[in-house]
Amino acid sequence: MRSLLVIALSCLMVACAQQSHVQLYPGNALPEQQILSVVVPNELEVQSINGQRVSGANAMFGTDDKTLHLQPGEYRINAFYKKGFDIDGGMSHEVVRGRTGVFTIDGKAGERWKLEFDRPRTLEQAKRLETEFQAWAVNISTGERHAAVEGQRNTSLVSNLLGTGQPDDNRSTVAPLDAASPAAEMQRSAAPQPSSVAAETLPHNDATLTTLKQLWHLMSPESRAAFMDWATQ
């Protein structure tokens, strides 16, 4: 009976080692040359990606690092340090949850990035991460490096479990920040072509001016900048 248990545990460990990657894009698995890979050390827990809580980003792989497989593009990954320490020779246990770091990655197909940080060696050093978190994202192949921005503090386990300050939905996939949403694509396809716009002009009166002013106030800063770029062409 004991031998069977040992064999079962060995098979489970091998399976975990072979599945230390997480696919976070829709559809079938693609070759690594077509995706963006982000390695997350096992001491880091992913809180959100592009503002979304993503199921699978914190899948358990024992002490192995996990690799997130993503569509190429730009991502903002919120992650924090979490590790348990034995106290008094293992008589008690303390879990340290560090301050959140915001990692920005703009990766191309085939690239491999890794989230890195100054790794503490003692409990006292780990506790410093509760207030300050020196971390960065590095391109494994080229050495390109981007410093992470310090985010919020993890004040308690309860707020962390509840995802305070994070959206309620939990997704299995995540799209790049620069990816157009389905609604935006529909609006783009339904928008009139330049020729039809030029053929239908609005009258020059106070009502037209008022409408344009209202639309301007409703536009985001990015939309205003894009409009001004178009107007100066």
UniProtKB/TrEMBL annotation:
This is DUF2057 domain-containing protein. It comes from Halopseudomonas pertucinogena. Residues 1-17 form the signal peptide. Keywords: Signal. Residues 159-198 are annotated as: Disordered. It holds the Pfam family DUF2057.
